[in-house]
Description:
Residues 29-48 bind DNA. The protein has a domain at 58-190: Tetracycline Repressor, domain 2 (Orthogonal Bundle). The protein contains 9 helices and no strands. With 202 residues, it is mainly alpha-helical. Helix 3 runs antiparallel to helix 4 and helix 3 (51-74) crosses helix 5.
Amino acid sequence: MGVHAGLTVDRITRAAAALADEVGIEKVTISALAREFGVKDASFYSHVRNLQEIRTRVAILASGEMNECIATAIAGRSGGEALAAFADAYRDYALRHPGRYAATQLRLDPSKIANTSAFERSVELTYAVMRHYDLDEPDLTDAARLLRATFHGYISIEASGGFNHPREVDRSWRQAISALHMLLEQWPRTEKTEAADKPKDM
């Protein structure tokens, strides 16, 4: 960039997101961003409190972008078709924007994201896809966690080049999503007594 003028929180956040995709979110620092803008580190502290705030803002930005991609993909779809569209949009965003995606996986201070709807929207989109499978709590939460674990695990291995078998990665992905759809339709329902006894805050 090398542009000194016009430092704003939005520009800092977007620069941090772009840098995260290039070098990884863990390598985004105040000093690295200051070099991008051609300013001293101290110039940033009139706009953001610290590095954690920048990473939180990148996570919020990325979550919002990802939500838009997923919402567009699943619009007008249901069942297995919606699940596949959701999964594909999730995977596509994560592979195209690895640094941004990594930011969405960070453990964030709940008080710092209380005024944003990005993460709530993510849950809403997940549950919208899950509605077809007619699951009640706690099965709904268990199933949603399975989806997240499957998507994140697969994408993480794929991004690191960990799949060495000659079988095409895309074909395995398709089979995995089809298998998830079949599993969700045959989900082992939690007994009502267990659900009733389960603490509400778990």
